């Protein structure tokens, strides 16, 4: 073979590659890139839920702080001990008065105070009833400077009567205490307002002398600065404890950090979750997992997040199939959850898109996809007329 032949072949190859590159990249070239697209997908509506996972610990839902008041008498002794379960109304500790007469005086003074309040309310009630029966209710009472009307007077009468009944009930209680008093040293008692467990007792009588913790649980946790801005009271939450899940909701989100804020340190904020149902067995201090639903969209138009081409913060696009051709479609994105991206504007449900963004600069690109012969139906050939098959075959030969 002559020595100049390889050189000629090399020149031809270079010219061929250069010509193809020119045809591809020149303006308005009819030759454009071809893309292999393994799979097309359709945009569809689905529920998107954004959640936040946090660690938590159980704590008493409610606490009662009980104080010792030495003005009521000297301290006789505790009636309960630490760790003991108590019911609402259980006696916690007792006061001891110095003399029988001192106890009677205290009760009678309380009764006198209640009766004076009742007398004042009865006078007020008489005045209101007189006003109600007056035919000139809509006139201005110059002495008092108020404008009375029937509705407001009836409301005042109702509230006054209710308060009188309440105070009369208190008087009956005091009368009962006085009536049952005997020659024994009388005692005044401090009782529990809630059902729970005695958490702390201060035997030195430093206040609060007793702390009662309710048996019901709430969940406490901590948020970072960014998380605190996303979580709001009322958001749904799911608590997982000892392998079981319990529904609840966020009750409080503190706006003040747990510690004194400092420039050089990050701030953390407390939050609490109230459970919809009380777990059968959950000791205070049990560590749990908390999942808070920060945002939920029932009918979100969603696509795979990998299909979105993020050109800039304000500009995103999808590669869509439109009338058999690929084009870039500008879109506005919304909530992103895992591998799903919400599309707010730009496409509609059912729009066909490429799973991954495609990029080209010149011309109109073509594409090819795998041929899935298994999906063809044999009946399509049986139903096709011979003339149609002949026409298609002819077109195939002519295009070669």
UniProtKB/TrEMBL annotation:
GO terms for cellular component: efflux pump complex. GO terms for molecular function: efflux transmembrane transporter activity. It comes from the Bacteria. The keyword Cell membrane does not apply. The chain crosses the membrane at residues 6-25. Residues 97-191 form a coiled coil. It holds the Pfam family BSH_YknX. Keywords: Coiled coil, Membrane, Transmembrane, Transmembrane helix. Residues 64-207 form the YknX-like barrel-sandwich hybrid domain. InterPro entries: BSH_YknX-like (IPR058639). This is HlyD family secretion protein. It comes from Bacillus benzoevorans.
